[in-house]
Design a protein that fits this description.
Shape of chain A: globular
CATH superfamily of the largest domain in chain A: Pseudouridine synthase I, catalytic domain, C-terminal subdomain
Strand content of chain A: 25-35%
Radius of gyration of chain A: 19 Å
Number of strands of chain A: 10
Helix content of chain A: 10-25%
CATH topology of the largest domain in chain A: Alpha-Beta Plaits
Number of domains of chain A: 2
Oligomer: homodimer
Distance between the termini of chain A: 20 Å
Structural class of chain A: alpha+beta
Order of helices and strands of chain A: EHEEHEEEHEEEHHE
Largest interface: A-B, 17 and 17 residues
Chain lengths: 245, 245
């Protein structure tokens, strides 16, 4: 029986999503809980993708198989009672046995929050604190140039050997809420560190240190050294995952 | 030289504000930092009042004396570089030697946040999660009855022997922001657990388990057993402190 779960987590106290030996990760915690639910038999979960250490998720998705059929609400309640308070299962649904939470992804949406207001200790793990003014108009012009199908190698983690650096971004925009700059990116997939590297470059544009049109040149170079500093992990949220019909 | 500081903190990882031996408290951390700034001489700080474990502050105030005069901005920067990330000094100003951060308080303002929306792990330390509907209209009628000068013994921590349980609340209201109920209380002073006990009783009113007019009877009883469950600490914020001219 295959199940799809939708879950949120506070990434602050995890070494990222992916299973690691002797480290507190989100996958470890969920698989430990499922082991108990599945009658002390191991369960592997397959998420839409990993998130790095300190990165949060509002609607991460993963599938897994159980030996026997259980009501979805029972699985949800059992998981939430077994899991630590920084992971929350929002929904459990049964899916076809050929559904795959990673391979069937159509789009993923991330948000990145920059706080340009006063440092607030309560938000320290949930925003990127930035104490200077940023030119939002130029950042908005820059982010639009990222929309479309491009080779994103310049924005990918160095030494992250991939077969394919081509990705399509269908939505990228900037909204302002009080002192917060909220960047949204929706696309068919994102390379490792890609969003944080795009944000780092957009901050350089906001500082007026480079022209927004530089985005086009950086994309063309297909080399990480042309993009700028990776923005901090704590401002990043996996906001949603969309599947093919 | 006497200085007044305004500071914010995330109470989640502290055993409250007040100094305790071998425990992580806000006062301990600030006094440790001031010891270094004051040439390795102990400095005692005097806050507007304590806050309990897990309670947050957006604008707590405290005064202290240093052996020598230092520019306020230098003290602020030195403190922020020495303090952990969950305390932030927002302002430092010089004050008269007869100013006292506790005795000269005119009003203090607290906020209490209840989340009636879906549990969000990112907010778990910053709101009181309440998964049922509350009758806001009745809560609003109830909170108004707390305004004025009353004996608040019924809302005070049991066994907290005081000489005087009379306090004046000059403002008490409820605002709704999306799924959050935000209660604000401003008064000339608050007894231990007073706000959390008032909130606990207002929740009972919101559940329609008691009539809002019960507030008057509970106040008259002057006995803690007539009020209801103390609301959780994590929803409480010391929002501001106001001094006499």
């Amino acid at each position: 029986m295959r199940y799809l779960i939708t879950f949120s987590y506070d990434g602050s106290n995890f070494f990222g999503y992916q299973k690691q030996l002797h480290k507190r990760t989100i996958q470890n915690e969920i698989e430990k809980a499922l082991f108990l639910i599945n009658g002390n038999k191991n369960v592997s979960i397959h998420a839409s993708g990993r998130t790095d250490a300190l990165v949060h998720a509002l609607n991460q998705k993963a599938h897994f198989d159980l030996n026997k059929e259980l009501p979805c609400l029972n699985i949800k309640n059992a998981l939430n009672s077994l899991l630590p308070k920084d992971i929350y299962i929002k929904n459990v649904e049964q899916v076809n046995n050929n559904f795959h939470a990673r391979f069937d992804v159509k789009y993923k949406e991330y948000k990145y929050i920059i706080n340009t207001g006063l440092y607030n200790p309560i938000e320290r793990n949930y925003v990127y604190q930035y104490n200077k003014n940023l030119d939002i108009d130029n950042m908005k012009k820059g982010i639009e140039l990222l929309i479309g199908t491009h080779n994103f190698k310049s924005f990918c983690k160095t030494n992250n050997e991939q077969l394919d650096y081509i990705r399509t971004i269908i939505k990228a925009n900037i909204e302002i809420e009080d002192d917060k700059i909220i960047l949204t990116f929706k696309g068919n997939g994102f390379l490792r560190y890609m969003i944080r590297n795009m944000v780092g470059t957009l901050i350089k544009i906001g500082e007026n240190k480079i022209n927004y049109k530089e985005i086009n040149n950086i994309l063309k170079k297909e080399n990480r050294i042309y993009a700028f500093k990776t923005a901090n992990a704590e401002g990043l949220y996996l906001n949603d995952v969309f599947y093919k019909e």
